[in-house]
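Example record

The entry below shows one chain as it appears in the dataset: sequence first, then C-alpha cells.
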Amino acid sequence: MKSEENNFLVKKEYESLERPEIVRFGNDFLKEFIFTEDANVISITAFRIICKIANDLRNSNFTKNQSEQLSLFDATFKNELNTYARFTIKKSEIAVGKNYRSLEKALEILLDYKKGWYTVTNLKGESSRSFSALVKDVTHNKGLISLLVPVYWLEKFTYLPAYNSYLNNVINNTSNNNHVFFYLWVKTIIENGSTVNFNNFNKRYHLKYRNANDLAKGFLKPIKAYLDTNADVSFNYSASKELIKISVYHNSKGKLLNEKNIKKVSLSQSTHYWGLRHKLDKSEKLRLKNAVRKEDFYLFERAYQCFVKQMRAEKRKVVSITGSEFIEVFQEKVIEQYANTPFAYSMPNGYPKI
C-alpha cells in the first residue's frame, strides 16, 4: 500500500492489535530513546502510546538472522526516500478514564521529543535526512488517534538484534514513569547487575539527593516495592559512599503475573541462579538456557535437587562444582531423572541435552 498524505509517503498502515502479555523493545531503541537524561518528559500516557506502536508491530519484528524479513522491510520502506507507516489507535487503549487532555499532552510530547535530523539510506545507497520526532501528522477524533512513524524510528521498533521482553501489565498498571523506566533498565542488566554513582541517578532522573543512602531510601525503595509486588524481575540495592550497587533477580511472586508467566519466570530464575552459583561462563550459560524448555523444566529441578542431596551426603560444598564440570554432572542427573519417565521406554535418548 502506497499513498501520499500531506506530502508524507505512507508505505504501510498497521492494524490495531489486541494488547498481548508482553511487549518487546530493542536495546538500541531504549538506549537512544529512553535511557537518556531528557526522558523524564515522557509521561506515562506517552509511554503507553510507544508501547501500543511496539505491540502493533510485533508481527513484523525481525532479528539479524532473519534475512527474509529484513529484505521485506527494506523493500517496503527503503526503496524510496522519507517513508512512513501509519498507525490508528483507539483512545480507550491509551487514555485512562477518558482523560483526553492527558492524551493530547502525551501526543504533544511525542511530536517534540527527540525531534531532529535523522539519516536513512535506501536500497540504492542513497541517503536522505529528514527532520522529525518519533511521530508526525497526528490527529484524533471519533475515539481514534492517527499518527505516522518515520522509517528511522520504525526500524528501531522492528529490527531487534538484541532485545528484552517486558510485561505490558507492569507498564500499564502504574502512573509513575520512573517505575517503568527503571523496570526497562533492570531488564537490560539482569545478568551482571550494575554499580552506579548516585549522581548519575540524580542526573538521569532529575533528582536532588545529597548522598547515595538518601537516594536509595527515597528513590529506589518505592520502585523496588512496586516491582516486588507486580513485576517478573526486581532488584536489591546497597549504598556505599557515593556508589549504589544494583543486583537483579527474577521474581515469580508478582501479582500481575499469570500462571504462564509465573512458570516462565521460575524457569529463568533457576537457570540464572544455577549459572551464578556454579560460575558458568557465557557459552555455558547459553547452553543451559537453550536446553531448559518449559515442558522439561521439572526434570532439571529434580536433577538439581538430587545433585544437592548427593553433595551433602558426600559432605562436599555444592558451589565447589563449577563451569564445565557442573554442566557434565548436571547432564548426568538429568539423564537419571529422564530414565524414570514414561518417555524413556519409547525414546531412550530423548532426554534434554545441555
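Notes for this example: The first helix runs from residue 27 to 33. The chain has a mean pLDDT of 88.
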